[in-house]
Amino acid sequence: MRSTLLTASLLFLAASPAVSQQLEYEDEGRLKTIIIQELPSSVVVAADAYVNRIAALDDAGPVLNAVIDYDPVAALAAIANTERHLGGRTILVKDNIETVEWPTTAGSLALADNRTGRDAPLIARLREAGGVVLGKTNLSEWANIRSSNSSSGWSAIEGQTRNPHATDRSPCGSSSGSAVAVAAGFAWAAIGTETDGSISCPASVNGIVGFKPTVGMVSRTHIVPLSHSQDTAGPMANSVYDAALLLSAIAGSDPADAATAEADAHVVDLTEGLQAASLTSVRLGVMRNQVGENAQVAEVFEQALDDLRAAGAILVEIDYTPDESMWDDEYTVLLYELREDLGAYLRGSPADIPVRSLQDVIAFNEAHADIELRWFGQDIFELAEMTRDREAYEQARANSFRLAGPEGIDRLLAEHEVAFLIAPTEGPAWPIDLVLGDHFTPGIGAGSLAAIAGYPHLTVPMGDVEGLPVGLSFIGERWGDHAVLQAGAAYESVRSVSLAEPGFAPWR
Q1: Which of 3, 94, 136, 155 is catalytic?
Q2: Is position 174 annotated as part of the catalytic site?
Q3: 286: left (phi over 0), alpha (psi -120 to 50) or beta
Q4: Structure pTM?
Q5: Active-site residue (options: 147, 174, 204, 473)
Q6: Helices 358-367 and 325-348 sit at what angle, rounded to 10 degrees?
Q7: For 259-285, how does the pLDDT look when each residue is reduced to its tens digit (9 = 90+)?
Q8: Which CATH architecture has domain 3-494?
Q9: Does residue 94 carry a catalytic annotation?
Q10: What pLDDT digit, counting tens, does each position of 422-468 carry?
Q11: Cα 367 to Cα 317: distance, rounded to the nearest angstrom
């Protein structure tokens, strides 16, 4: 943490909805004190509570390592925005998204000084809507595409992020810090990014709502990229309504991002109709082969299906097995686009950074191997640097998109006459293992279809396995974001199980 709150005191004024507040904090080694007077208590208390909670649980206590930087006097910004759409709500932002206040590191020491002095367009929209950027969150370094045996949630900048439900278990990634921050109560909501699973998986295992919108709904300008075909930012929150409210603020067309050309035509108040949303007579495609073989996950999923039936949904069993070439071709696409897209971003950064290409990053990691390469290597980076056959790449993108989109989601929705596809999102969190890397539960989830096709994917908590959360996925058609959010909100309103609360301690 570069900004650390030392003391905070709230003095409530008699017969007044306002408070006076004294904050003492350390900012990059300098002790500062500020007194805030006559501010509405609800705004100040909320912002102050988040800051205190970060200090108590992220800087100290279980040391979750979810937050890299934060603003200890966020209440000042909150009060100035109370009349706008987001009303001064505080949001944490994944540290591959540029904000004017802090460097944007993607978790790497190579970008420790990447102070660009600019906001990504989605951040500018957030501020214009009355949102307050509380700070930056940790992530799986370089969005978890450096090594084939990485540990999700680890970065050289902040170390290993920990799941608040079980601090010895993985937060998944790459939007690890954003998910943990919401689950731990460090902010009203957070923004993550996803290429394939990086919002949905951490949201699922941390017991929160995560929404990967249609690719092109949210600008990617000034976000450290992985793949222009699949990258998107999206909201992570405690409820579907909050996720929709945040997405409404950050979505929209951006002339610098061609993928967003149609976004303005689809940007509406995404919270509209959520509170009254119904599943009555809604046909849902149950992706039975994507439930996996974990009996406890299957049991939680069956309870979710019972809740959906009780709410009037019509469940349609779907027998689907993907063509294996989809995965191979997606990998080719990610390798090719990583080298090109990341190189373009690095060359375009106005900051004084030591890397301007993927090859530079590989060399930087080798020169700083004692920190950067201590736990796992960079075999994917090295393979991406050698992936230069454009014709093979274009063929791979065409095939992977066809299999995931037109012949995947679109075909399944049409042939079975269903509105959405549903499945468990991911298995329960696995033990953190910096030596051997992640241990995903195989065979669970269908999120890669939505990721490769660029279609919307929502995960909503549906229960837990021995105190470890698992989520329920809703996948819909391209630009069907509002409808997917309505379906998720309708399920959320009829969910019969009690959700697990974070214990901030090792599992069992």
Answers
A1: 94
A2: yes
A3: beta
A4: 0.93
A5: 174
A6: 80
A7: 999 999 999 999 999 999 999 999 999
A8: Alpha-Beta Complex (3.90)
A9: yes
A10: 999 999 999 999 999 999 999 999 999 999 999 999 999 999 999 99
A11: 53
